[in-house]
Design brief:
This protein has 804 residues and is of the alpha+beta class. Helix content is 50%, strand content 13%. Strands 3-2-1-4 form a four-stranded mixed β-sheet, sandwiched between helices. Helix 9 packs across helix 10, helix 9 crosses helix 11 and helix 26 runs antiparallel to helix 29. The C terminus is likely disordered.
Length: 804
Amino acid sequence: MSNGAADLVRARTQLLDGGQPRNPRLDAQSLRQALVDLYELWLTSKGAELGIAPDSGLAVVAVGGLGRGEMLPYSDLDLVLLHDDVDPARVAEVADQLWYPLWDAHIKLDHSVRTVPQALRVAADDLIAALGMLEARHIVGDQELSNLLIGGVRREWRTGIRSRFEELIAQAKARWERNGEIAHRAEPDLKNGRGGLRDIQLLDALAIAQLTDAMPGLGPDVPGGGLKQAHRRLLDVRTELHRVAGRARDQLRAQDADEIGAALRIGDRFDLARTLSDSARTVSYSVDVGLRTAANALPRRGLARLRRMPVRRPLDEGVVEHAGEVVLARDARPQRDPGLILRVAAASAQTGLPMSATTLNRLSEDAPELREPWPKDALNDLLVLLGAGRGTIDAIEALDRTGLWGRLLPEWGAVRDLPPRDVQHIWTVDRHLMETVAYAGGLSTRVARPDLLALGALLHDIGKGRAGDHSVVGAELATHIGRRLGLWPSDVRTLSAVVRHHLLLPETATRRDLSDPETVRYVVEALDGDPQLLELLHTLAETDSQATGPGVWGDWKASLIGELVRRCRLIMAGDQLPTPEPIAPDLVEKARAGGVHVDLQPGESKHTYVVTVIAPDSSGLLSDAAGVLALHSLRVLSAALGVEGASAVDTFVVAPKFGDPPDPGLLRQELIRATAGDLDVAAALAKREREAGTIGRSRYAQAQPRVIWSDTSVPGQVILELRAEDRVGLLSRLAAELAGCGADVRWAKVVTMGSAVVDSFCLELGAEDSPARRETIEKALIAVVPRTAPKPPADGARDSENGD
């Protein structure tokens, strides 16, 4: 090609611009192969032009993507020019004529010029270089020269793996620490993250060292098609990521996910996230197996070769420990022992030892289905597994990646790798359930029935991923599962009720007035006055919140739910429900005297404070008061409104974002300025927000704002719940909009969990309550809520989720 690499660039552009009738768009796999063929054609043609022939003492070897035959649209071109007994001036001339056309065409090039001994020394000294050369492939020139390099690198890799194994593991762990897990990252690094393409290359390197199989078997029922399919999916997503970005990129951005999902015919960004989670978790599990297998297969030296074989230590019936893994005993008969799967898993969870891949494969192939209802021993082993704390997670993950968990719990398929639909959740739904079980294990002594707590934690979100309210659907599924497990009918009913009402306590405590007798009566009636069910739901509410993500559970939320439970227990015990607590006499006296008063006292927990504001009642007071608090970096956790004569008595539970709270005298001065119009609260909040730089942040799978209306037993009185991302002074802005719409706020509950808020307002709309007025109020509130998701879902799917 006399015109340098211009033809190469034009051909690559044509491949990437496909989509016309005469130039159809290639799918991801076909595009990679076409790029490999294109680069090889150019290199072989250029090599022939430069005299890089079979007997020339020169050879071009590809490493990286071209070496693996996985050329992505904008990946670097990694080439090695090998030479042997060739005049240095000739080598330099060939190198210049090979590299410069690629540079001039702005093709990213990683190159080197070496003899075979030089290349082998580099591989011996540099682990990253060695891993790259393991993927080397001859392109053009002296084949024997290329074979010397490829064969030499692989031979030295096999013989030297024992001394390099620890460094290999350390490098992988450092990479995982830097880049996180693909399965649980909002914007994962497809190449370097845990469960990514680098890990597949790690498995290949272990296979070349003859320590493990590059594609370890995962059993016949493995979800997602196994490691080979996971590898292709990751490559396909990264290929489309290059195509969408128009440049080399490893990190999948939220704003690109919908387009990539559509291009791969996977679906929207939630479907893509589910696919990536499945693939990454399959790769992660395979790497864990590969590293354990490799460690056990390392050649031993010196006295280590004389040590006795590892002892087989019994763990349970048919289950032993061997070489740091849980394996089957020699006399185990999985064909005749359907409960063996659960015993192996329970032993693994309790001891923290991983289950042998060979054992899991054998169970996958030979173990029969458990008969229904399950025998008591099988149910007991399941409860042992679920009560093992953090060990439960690894054990269930291993069962799931090999298809065994789905055999035990077929309903799991709908939640497997299902991505969260709101910003609070940091785990996929199935992982969230496992996390909840792990947390529940540490709180099992709080309840009289820890078995039902564990099962409720496992199944509370099992209805997600299906049409309808997931609590209602989940309750039906829990009934079927409970019967299958062999629970007593009364326990089946309780389990179903736990799943059905697992959101009842947190939703009620954070959205309704606990001093209202109707609130407590509503909960008691929903639970049929069952104190055992109340106890289970109380503990599950905490574990569910803890398993959701940072900041979802705290002292304030715990105190609200605890107070609700206390009042419910009084009713269930037959005691009279206490009437709402009146305004304290000293506050009544201050309110009757008039004027503006601001008081700040420590709250019930270490980092919360109670701010009481007494001022002449007006429709804008709540907005001004909340705005002043926000301007002084006080996060409003809840607000209680009361009126005494012509004065309003508003109480806020607040938490400083940092440091100590401001002096209440300063808050009073600022409130007076705000109510007098001397302080423009809205403008000050906007300035604070600009300074904080909080607008325009992009988050993966961020929920769109949602307004939910609920009627109360009082005519004309409704509850409005807003779910959205937090914003500086959001409560102040919302209160201002409500005042502007003429909606009288009877009370308000504010819940802030991380960057998400759930704000509930009890509104007095009176006879003017109508769908049209509600729509007007809703639009006004939505207008001040930040909507930072770059591409909201077209089908409104996010609205289908509800709470934790």
